[in-house]
Design brief:
- The protein has a domain at 132-168.
- Helix content is 61%, strand content 7%.
- The protein has 7 helices and 3 strands.
- It has helices at residues 21-40, 47-58, 64-71, 75-87, 109-115, 118-129, 135-165; strands spanning 62-63, 91-95, 103-107.
- A hairpin with a 7-residue loop joins strand 2 (91-95) and strand 3 (103-107).
C-alpha cells in the first residue's frame, strides 16, 4: 500500500503571512469579535463575558470546567470572567447536591435577558462579514473549514498515537 504525500501549499522559504490561511482566519475572527464586542458594549460585555453567557443560554447545565473546554478558554481566565458576570448579577453558581466539589453555572433572569441579545448580534456581525457571498460560496466555506478542523483533529490523533508508541 503506497502512502499518499499531501499537497504542500506552503514552503518554509516562501511563507507569506498575508497568504496564510491561519493568519487570515485569525484576522477575520479578530474582526468578528471586535464588531461583536462593539455591538454588545451597551450591555457592558466583552468577548470573554458574552461567550460564556451565550453558551449558558444554549446549555445551562454546565460547570466551569466543561464551559472552559467547550469555548477553549483558559480555566483561570474563565473563572475571572465568571466572577465579573456574577458581580454583575448575570450568573450564579450552584454547588451540586450529589458532589459538593462540582459547581453548576446558572443564568439569572437578568443574565438570560442579556444573553438573548447575543445571537442576533452574532448573526448581524457574521452576515456583515459575509456580505457579497453567495449561498453556495457560504456553504463551500463552511465545508472547507469543517474539513480543516477534521484534518487538525486527525493530526492531533496521530501525534497522540506517536507519543504513546515513542516513550522518549
Amino acid at each position: 500500500m503506497s502512502k499518499v504525500t499531501p499537497t504542500q501549499f506552503y514552503l518554509a522559504g516562501q511563507y507569506q503571512p498575508e497568504q496564510s490561511v491561519g493568519y487570515l482566519m485569525n484576522k477575520v475572527l479578530s474582526s468578528i469579535l471586535a464588531q461583536a464586542d462593539a455591538q454588545l458594549a451597551p450591555y457592558k460585555l466583552t468577548y470573554v463575558q458574552w461567550l460564556p453567557l451565550y453558551k449558558l443560554l444554549m446549555d445551562e447545565s454546565q460547570t466551569s470546567a466543561q464551559l472552559a473546554r467547550e469555548i477553549a478558554i483558559d480555566p483561570a481566565a474563565l473563572t475571572r470572567s465568571l466572577n465579573r458576570l456574577e458581580i454583575k448579577g448575570l450568573i450564579h453558581r450552584e454547588r451540586s447536591v450529589q458532589d459538593r466539589r462540582v459547581v453548576h453555572l446558572r443564568l439569572t433572569d437578568a443574565g438570560r435577558d442579556v444573553a438573548q441579545h447575543v445571537p442576533s448580534v452574532l448573526a448581524d456581525v457574521l452576515n456583515g462579514h459575509l456580505q457579497g457571498f453567495s449561498e453556495p460560496e457560504w456553504t463551500l466555506m463552511l465545508q472547507l473549514l469543517q474539513r480543516m478542523l477534521s484534518n487538525g483533529d486527525g493530526m492531533k490523533q496521530r501525534q497522540h498515537t506517536h507519543k504513546k508508541i515513542d516513550p522518549t
